[in-house]
Every structure is written in C-alpha cells, then in structure tokens.
Amino acid sequence: MYSNKQPSSLFLYDKIDSTNLEAKRHASAYLEHPKVFIAKEQTSGRGRLNREWVSSSKDGLYMSILFNSNLPSSNISSLSLISGLSICKSINKFANNKALIKWPNDIIIENKKVCGILLESIIYSNKLSSIILGIGININNKKFENELAQKATSLYIETHKIIDCKNVVQEILKNFSFYYNRLLSNKFGEVINEYKNLCVSINRNVTIKRLDGDIEAFSKDIDSKGNLIVITNDFKEMNINSCEVVVQGIY
Ligand code: BTN
User: Fold this and answer.
1) In this predicted structure, what is the pLDDT of residue 76?
2) Cβ count near 214 (within 10 Å)
3) Which of 62, 112, 156, 242 is buried deepest, with most CB atoms within 10 A?
C-alpha cells in the first residue's frame, strides 16, 4: 500500500532503459512498501501511446513509483487524476504556481508541456494490482531543439532558477501520498474540485483522437470518476476516459 509513513526503497541509476520497465521487473504481488526508481538518463524512455520520451538530458527527472493497491481496477481514472493533481502541486512549489493540468495528467506551463505521466498497472486478481507511476519532468533543461522547442518547457526556462531534483522528488512523494490517502478514504469528490481548479481542459473546444477518427467537441466538465464530459458537434454527450484529447491552443 502507498504511504510515505512507511519507508520506501530508493533505487538510483546513472543510465537505464526506462524506470517504468525497471519498476515492472521489481513488481510482485507480495510487495510491502513502495519502491522508487530514479535515473539520470533513460535509453528507452516511453510515454503514453508508446511514444518516445526523450530522456538523454541529465537535466530531466525520470522517476517511477511502484506500489501495490487494493483499489478495484475501475479506479485507474481516479488514480490518473490524483497523480496529475499531486504532481502539478509539487511542480507549483518550484514554478511560482504557474503549472496547470491538461486532462488527464499532462502538466503544462504557458501552454507548453513540462511533465508527462505514464500510469501502468499489473493486475494479479480483481482487487490487487501493482501500480507503476512513471513521471518525467523537464527540470533544468536550458532549451529544447526541433519540434520539442514548440511543445516543451522546463522549470529552468520558466523560473531561471536551477532546481535540485531531490527537492522535487520529496515534494512528489509527500503530495502523492496525501492524495492517494484521500482517494482511499472516499474523499475523491473534494479532490476533483481541487483538480478542476487547476485543469485547463474544461470549457474548451477539444478534438478527441480515436482510432476510428477524430471527434470535434466542447468539454463541459469532469464527472465523479474523473472522466471528461464533452458535447460533440452533433450534440451527443460523451464521458471520455482514456482517449487522447487535444485542447485547442495548447502545444
Ligand atoms: C507522456 O506524457 O506521454 C508520459 C511520459 C512519461 C515519461 C516517464 S519518464 C520516467 C518513466 N519512465 C518511462 O519510460 N516513462 C516514464
């Protein structure tokens, strides 16, 4: 179970394929305490939809938290939202409160991405799973090349301050534990309200990217499970839980 009252074991690497892959190699139904994996560099960093997560710069933070959870697998959307909220709040401590969330859990500053989250799970039975929360944050990157220059930013670019990654890690572990425990104690309704205050994806024109084609829509709200409620251009209401949603005007 996740709690920062229990000791978490910390694994540090100069270079690894991916901290999420390493976390999966350590996953077991018998894991008692969370394990945290941090690398200075990843050779095979992965993002959502199996996209590459550029991880060659030592100025980034590449981190995965592995823990076991009793939550039913249907709670993965809620977990995804509390990850976004807790990491946005952590980043805000170092970013003069400029960070916001693009649903479900991309963190942006000035409409550019500063952090991506890859949440994965291994299910052992209906009720027990290992959760792998992979977090990539652009911390001290001075600039980005090519197409990333349009889409990505870093804490350094936004604040002109060099930030010690250790402090960011500590803040993430503290905040994630706090919000995870809110989820366990059925306080997700309150958490959603906090999430909505930081979320840029509500009341916007959006494009929902689906395998069978794009859908243009207007995003109305977030429901009690963390799904995005949209009204399509032909007036159908849909609750979206896993598709990629492009918000017009954001990277
Ligand atoms: C995304 O926005 O697509 C998610 C990016 C997640 C990147 C992090 S970096 C640490 C961990 N290891 C990986 O291979 N991916 C995640």
Assistant:
1) 85
2) 12
3) 62
